[in-house]
Design a protein that fits this description.
By secondary structure, this protein is of the alpha+beta class. The chain has helices at about 25-30, 50-80, 85-105, 110, 115-125, and strands spanning about 40, 130, 140-145, 145-150, 155-165, 165-170, 175-180, 185-190, 195.
């Protein structure tokens, strides 16, 4: 089998080129993605977090109370001409703002309704994802247009975009073996090349 990276002739059953270490059977790998632990992103079903859902509903209730405080404070200020109601309105506004910020920062919508929010983003950025994704591992490999990337399962976001010709774990969850544009190197999970 001829290496498409350096042109070296290798035995037919070789997985890697003996000169440059290039993965030789990558095309057959993409043909067998389903058999090798990957599934189409369109087929995944994600479980929502009950704790995140309950917290989201509680914060929504507090947000509504804060909004009602704002409305009541403003109305009472104009009707009764009592400046004390300005503080009620201001307190309600601050309360509502803080609750909205905490909900957004903690990604409560993503955790409560992952099939609606997370999956819609995944469908744009991946064609295939590792089945381990469903098992709550920290990271899962993704494939988009025959390129590899890494998805952070805990943070519900792409850790490394799918731009690499090949990725494999050197140290699971920390260090990756990378092949990109015919060059092989190692890097950390944040995309920093290591020497």
């Amino acid at each position: 089998m001829k290496c498409n990276n350096c042109g070296c002739d290798n035995p037919d059953d070789a997985k890697y080129c003996r000169v440059c270490g290039n993965v030789l059977q990558l095309e057959s790998f993409f043909e067998k993605l389903s058999e090798l632990g990957f599934m189409p992103t369109t087929m995944i079903t994600l479980k929502g977090s009950l704790g995140a859902t309950l917290l989201l509903y509680l914060l929504e209730l507090l947000f509504i109370i804060g909004c009602l405080m704002v409305i009541a404070g403003i109305v009472n200020f104009f009707v009764r001409r009592d400046s004390g109601f300005v503080f009620v309105a201001l307190g309600g506004f601050v309360c509502s703002f803080v609750i909205a910020y905490v909900s957004f920062k903690c990604k409560l919508l993503d955790k409560s309704f992952p099939n609606r929010y997370v999956k819609s983003r995944l469908l744009k950025e991946t064609d295939y994802i590792q089945l381990d994704f469903v098992n709550d591992d920290d990271y899962a490999f993704i494939v988009k247009n025959k390129k590899f990337g890494v998805y952070s399962v805990r943070r519900y976001e792409i850790q490394l975009p799918a731009i690499y010709d090949w990725l494999s774990w050197k140290i699971e969850g920390q260090i990756l073996n990378v092949r990109q544009n015919g060059r092989q190197y190692i890097m950390d999970i944040y995309g920093n090349e290591l020497k």
